[in-house]
Structure to design on (858 residues):
């Protein structure tokens, strides 16, 4: 049996998963890869920390050179996260002719190009299945399985934390704050939840998916991003009343030759397969011009699911099944697709406004919508005898730019306390 | 640009899809494969038949040798279906050192071993993504993406015809007969629907999935098979009342070192992702010991979806990304897993019985269930003033063998008109 030595950078959640899988599934991996995989060294911050797993202490090191400069190590797995120093470590591994497997979405989304080019120049494999949607083999699917297709659209639920929170808000009537607290207690959300709840995490993943699917370079600044912190129980309730479920979605699609990329909460039809993706599960809905509608569903995070993607990448490298040339060819023929400005996005909208409870106000607002070309599907006013009333509009399909202009005018009208929320409605067929 | 010539055996539904995709997505395919794919010859039964697509007549031939013996053809696509003569054609193509792509599930399920061995001996690729679940890249997922996992269980909705019929019965209150007629009118069912509605089609696909996932040879005789023809609207209604949806499912799982393989209608929980797979869509739910629960959803049939799988296979061959050795290694290390006898299957059961409406009959039947170790969860008797009453039992988890014995005794009791239906309940978590 052939033997191969790998090095691991980082021994957190995913690192632990990789270690467990390499041990538990040794037989399967041996059979499928033709190799006995041996872990040579693992870079950690503190070799004395108790990690609750049975990693022999002599494998741990606090010196990156022990991984990056060891000639016996053929594959380096980077699962430490963050841009710095992960980027430098990966570049050094590549220079030392090591294949690289990474789960680092932020690094890929912001500095991917430099890493891909370096790997190409040195003729080593650079794999990153684990960077998007954990265990779901979406990178593989786009890169290898859907190659006969022109991909038209991707809609993903690719952040488990926000999906967990929204599921709790939808089915257990929790507030955002209570659901976030529960998610934190259960380990589904970080102490500082910003990256998840403000949509940054989903944005990085969308950048990777968009680049891959549309064969073009992506600037993350071109991705519209909005989190879920403004979603209130009342919005969830209105959505339900109209047959929708609110999800944080990441969308990319080509519209009139430009690329529309956005991450934001949206109401989606409750009968759509994406609507029943609950808890911390992820799913990616793809429309290809040959395959039609497809969805991949699974665990988007967690030690073993993400470890599954990492170890499968290692096996792919060992099998030599990467066609490095073919993947480079796509990169070297990157299309120059311009991003579509957000004001050109077409959508239906849900707008919830607190207005002064005076005669004529409703008419005034409706007139403003009309002036800006926004056609109203439904309007509801909650009849409370207070100074301010809550009015909810569901619009027909319109341009984001029209909504923006109408909202500015409504704010300026003097009869509005505040625009409580604006949520896009994606009527996915 | 490199050029490669392919030959196609069959120009039906899938063949038309392949032709369309090769033309429509020429640019994408060129970029991803590094090749211009040219169709050399297409074997058809009648070159004069009008197929409604723009295939130049000089490409058509009625002589298989024009495809199989043409040295300029490097890849043969077999999409004629059936075992005979498809098997001989494929073997001849392999002997002539041509790579083969097939969509032929029946052939693979029954004669796959001989074909794999032949391809291995000649060192050519033998791909079959299109044979299971059309456009869904399930073969690729198991073979290449989930390699880090020990697969524990697969539950699939892998027959579009029966799923269409059951969807109509569930949501439009149709009878089986009416739904079948509509499916036939819409082209979702054949004039002779036996292969679909009796579960043969799903059985072939399950054999392929089982062999691949568990690394073992499968005898299709070892797969329990039952179709959907006995499902009545009343069964659908009872299922709904208890929170279930009836689907034709194909299951494989390892239980106590043996392989349980079965195709039959089952009640599944309405909140499970598989329950919302409607119309002619397919989905495959996989549980891996690392990745956890995963589902792939998409179009299981149709010219373009199935063509998508065929053309993606061609591209994989052109990229040289098949690790023929690794796949052979799995085959050459096939495990000897015995099939699990059906009487050892554990399930909950729904049993609908027409009994004589006499005092004591209900007690008698319940006693028999108890004697055979079948514990009852719910029982309902429809109170009609007729000679026979309909009684419905929902059982707790029990062995199929116990149910069988109880049913024999109940039949022999003399107070039963008939056992109207027995449907397994899969309480998938």
């Amino acid at each position: 049996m052939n033997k191969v030595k790998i090095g691991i950078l980082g021994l957190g959640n995913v690192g632990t998963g990789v270690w467990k899988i390499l041990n538990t599934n040794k037989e399967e991996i041996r059979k499928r890869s033709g190799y006995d995989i041996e872990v040579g060294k693992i870079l950690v911050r503190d070799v004395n920390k108790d990690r609750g797993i049975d990693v022999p202490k002599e494998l741990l090191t606090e010196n990156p050179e022990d991984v990056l400069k060891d000639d016996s190590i053929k594959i380096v797995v980077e699962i430490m996260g963050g841009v710095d120093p992960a980027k430098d470590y990966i570049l050094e591994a590549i220079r030392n002719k090591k294949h690289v497997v990474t789960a680092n979405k932020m690094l890929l989304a912001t500095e991917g190009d430099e890493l891909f080019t370096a790997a190409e120049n040195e003729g080593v494999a650079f794999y990153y299945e684990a960077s998007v949607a954990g265990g779901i083999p979406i990178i593989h699917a786009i890169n290898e399985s859907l190659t006969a297709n022109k991909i038209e659209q991707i809609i993903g639920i690719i952040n488990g934390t926000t999906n967990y929170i929204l599921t709790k808000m939808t089915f257990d009537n929790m507030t955002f704050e209570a659901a976030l607290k529960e998610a934190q207690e259960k380990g589904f959300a970080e102490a500082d939840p910003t990256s998840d709840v403000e949509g940054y995490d989903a944005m990085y993943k969308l950048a990777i998916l968009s680049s891959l699917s549309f064969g073009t370079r992506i600037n993350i600044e071109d991705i519209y991003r909005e989190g879920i912190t403004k979603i209130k129980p009342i919005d969830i309730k209105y959505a339900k009343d109209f047959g929708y479920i609110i999800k944080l979605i990441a969308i990319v699609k080509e519209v009139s030759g430009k690329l529309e990329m956005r991450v934001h909460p949206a109401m989606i039809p409750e009968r759509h397969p994406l609507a029943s993706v609950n808890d911390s599960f992820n799913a990616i809905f793809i429309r290809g011009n040959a395959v039609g509608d497809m969805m991949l569903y699974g665990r988007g995070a967690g030690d073993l699911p993400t470890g599954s993607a990492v170890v499968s990448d290692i096996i792919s490298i060992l099998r030599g099944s990467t066609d490095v040339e073919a993947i480079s060819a796509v990169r070297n023929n990157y299309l120059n697709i311009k991003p579509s400005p957000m004001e050109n996005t077409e959508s239906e909208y849900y707008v919830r406004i607190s207005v002064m409870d005076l005669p004529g106000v409703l008419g005034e607002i409706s007139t403003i919508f009309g002036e800006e070309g926004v056609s109203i599907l439904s309007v509801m006013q909650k009849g409370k005898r207070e100074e301010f009333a809550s009015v909810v509009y569901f619009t027909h399909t319109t341009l984001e730019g029209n909504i923006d202009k109408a909202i500015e005018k409504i704010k300026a009208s003097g009869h509005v306390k505040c625009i409580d929320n604006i949520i896009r409605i994606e009527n996915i067929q």
